[in-house]
Automatic annotation (TrEMBL):
SUPFAM superfamilies: Bacterial exopeptidase dimerisation domain (SSF55031), Zn-dependent exopeptidases (SSF53187). Residues 209-332 form the Peptidase M20 dimerisation domain. Its cofactor is Zn(2+). Keywords: Hydrolase, Metal-binding, Zinc. The keyword Isomerase does not apply. This is Acetylornithine deacetylase/succinyl-diaminopimelate desuccinylase-like protein. It holds the Pfam family M20_dimer. GO terms for molecular function: hydrolase activity; metal ion binding.
Length: 450
C-alpha cells in the first residue's frame, strides 16, 4: 500500500526575503539626527526579535544611550566556536523622506514592477531582510555554520552612531565578544562594464576601505561695527574667504591600495587607461558611469563647505562668523590634510573638528574574502570581485575600534543600467526583487562556508 505523505518544507530564505524587506520598510525609522523627532527604531528592532524568536533564537534588545534607540542581537553557534565569530550588521534607521516627491509612499514597501520600493530599500533594509531570511533558514533547517555568527541590527547609523554603534562599542563591548570579522554595508553590489574584446563583465565591489568623515567648524573673529563705515576687520569677509578657498581647492591625487586595485581591475577588463598624472583622470573615471561619483571621490581628500552662520542685522558687522565644512580624508592623509587646510584658511580663521570618524582600511585577501568570492562566483560564474573604497562612512568605523576586521558585503546583482549610487538617500529608492533573491542565495552560501 502506498501512503501519501505530505511534507511541508520550511520556506526557504529566497521565498521570504521580499516580504521581510517590504515589512521592514513599513516601519518608519526616520533618523533626523535629533532625538525628539527620530522614531521607529524600537518597534522595528522588536519586530526583528519576533522574526528570530519564532524560529528559536534567543535575542537581546538593547537601547543605545537614549529611550527608543533600539538594537537587537542574536547569536548562532557554529561548528567550531574556537574560531572567532563573524558578525553581520545592518542598521534599522533610515534618512527621512519627503512623501510628496515620491512615485509611491516612501514607507509603503510596495512591491511593483519587479522592485521593492521605499526608504531603506538599498540603505539598508535590503541587507537587514537578507540577514533575517538566512538566519531563519539556518535555524529552521538545522544548518550549522562553520563558525559562530552574530546578527546585529542597530540604530542611529545615519547620524554617525552616537545613539547606536558608537554607544554600543563604548558601553557594551561584551555584545561583540569573540567577534573577529564583520560584514555590513556598502559593498557586494554589481557594476557592469564593457569588456575590451566586446561584451560585458560584471564586477562585484567589495568594500575594503572608507574615507574618514571629519566635520570642521571654521571661526573668524573680527571687530564689530557699523556697516556704513570703513572697516578692515570683518569676520564675515574672513570666513567667506576661507570657505571659498577650501571649496575650490583640489587636494592631491593619492592612490590607496583599494583604489589602485580597483582601477587596475577595471583597466584590465575594459582597456581604459587611468593615468594618475593626467589632468583628466576624473574624465577617465567618468566612463564608469554613475559610480564615478563615489570612485572619483576616493582619489583625493575633499572639503565641501556645507553651513554658514553670521550676523543678525544688515547694517551691523558681527564680531564673529562661522562655517562648517564636510571633510572626507583618505587613509593615512590626515596630518597632510590638516597642514594643507591651515595654509588655505590662513592665521585669521581658526578651525576645530566637531565630528571625527577615522578612515578605515583592510586588505583584499584572506579566507573570509575567499568565501565571499566563492559565494559570488557560484551564483554568477563569469563575474569578478574587486576591492573598492567607500567615499562615505559606515558603522565599520566603530567596530574597527574593537579590532574587528570589516568588509562591506551586502550582495546584490543589479540591472546594468540602474543608477544604484543615486538611490542612496534618493527619491524613489528601490531594490530589484531579483537582486534580493540573488543576494540571499549568495549570503546563504557565504555563511555556510565562512
Ligand atoms: Zn546605510
Amino acid at each position: 500500500m502506498v501512503r501519501m505523505v505530505t511534507v511541508t518544507a520550511a520556506p526557504n530564505a529566497e521565498a521570504e526575503v521580499v516580504d521581510l524587506v517590504s515589512a521592514l520598510i513599513r516601519f518608519d525609522t526616520s533618523n533626523t539626527g535629533e532625538l525628539e523627532t527620530t522614531k521607529g527604531e524600537a518597534e522595528c528592532a522588536r519586530w526583528v526579535a519576533e522574526q528570530l524568536e519564532e524560529v528559536g533564537y534567543t535575542t537581546e534588545y538593547v537601547e543605545a544611550g537614549a529611550p527608543g534607540r533600539g538594537n537587537l542581537f542574536a547569536r548562532l553557534d557554529g561548528a567550531d566556536s574556537s574560531r572567532g565569530a563573524l558578525m553581520l550588521h545592518g542598521h534599522l534607521d533610515v534618512v527621512p523622506a519627503e512623501a510628496s516627491d515620491w512615485s509611491v509612499h516612501p514607507f509603503s514597501g510596495a512591491v511593483e514592477d519587479g522592485y521593492v520600493w521605499g526608504r531603506g530599500a538599498v540603505d539598508m533594509k535590503d541587507m537587514v531582510g537578507m540577514m533575517i531570511a538566512v538566519a531563519r533558514r539556518f535555524k529552521r533547517s538545522g544548518i550549522v555554520p562553520p563558525r559562530d555568527l552574530v546578527f546585529a541590527f542597530v540604530s542611529d547609523e545615519e547620524a554617525g552612531g552616537k545613539y547606536g554603534c558608537k554607544w554600543l562599542v563604548d558601553n557594551r563591548p561584551d555584545l561583540f565578544d569573540g567577534v573577529t570579522e564583520a560584514v555590513g554595508e556598502v559593498g557586494g553590489f554589481s557594476l557592469t562594464i564593457p569588456r575590451r574584446d566586446g561584451g560585458e563583465r560584471t564586477l562585484y565591489l567589495i568594500e575594503t576601505a572608507e574615507k574618514a568623515m571629519m566635520w570642521m567648524r571654521l571661526n573668524a573673529r573680527g571687530r564689530a561695527g557699523h556697516g556704513s563705515m570703513v572697516h578692515d576687520n570683518n569676520a564675515v569677509t574672513a570666513v567667506a574667504e576661507a570657505v571659498a578657498k577650501l571649496g575650490r581647492h583640489q587636494f592631491p591625487v593619492v592612490l590607496t591600495d583599494a583604489v589602485e586595485q580597483f582601477l587596475t581591475a577595471v583597466a584590465e577588463e575594459t582597456g581604459y587607461t587611468f593615468d594618475v598624472d593626467s589632468p583628466d583622470l576624473e574624465g577617465a573615471i567618468a566612463k564608469l558611469g554613475p559610480i564615478a561619483r563615489i570612485v572619483g571621490a576616493t582619489l583625493r581628500d575633499t572639503a565641501n563647505p556645507t553651513m554658514l552662520k553670521a550676523g543678525y542685522k544688515a547694517n551691523v558687522i558681527p564680531a564673529t562668523a562661522e562655517a562648517v565644512v564636510d571633510c572626507r580624508v583618505l587613509p593615512g592623509r590626515l596630518a597632510a590634510f590638516e597642514r594643507e587646510v591651515d595654509e588655505l584658511i590662513g592665521p585669521d580663521v581658526t578651525r576645530e573638528w566637531i565630528t571625527e570618524l577615522p578612515s578605515y582600511e583592510t586588505t583584499f585577501d584572506g579566507e573570509l574574502l575567499d568565501a565571499m568570492n566563492n559565494a559570488i562566483l557560484t551564483a554568477d560564474p563569469d563575474a569578478r570581485t574587486v576591492p573598492y573604497m567607500l567615499s562615505g562612512g559606515t558603522d565599520a568605523k566603530h567596530f574597527a575600534r574593537l579590532g574587528i576586521r570589516c568588509f562591506g558585503f551586502a550582495p546584490l546583482k543589479l540591472p546594468p543600467d540602474l543608477d544604484f549610487a543615486a538611490l542612496f538617500h534618493g527619491v524613489d529608492e528601490r531594490v530589484p526583487v531579483d537582486a534580493l533573491k540573488f543576494g540571499t542565495r549568495v549570503l546563504e552560501h557565504f555563511l555556510q562556508h565562512c
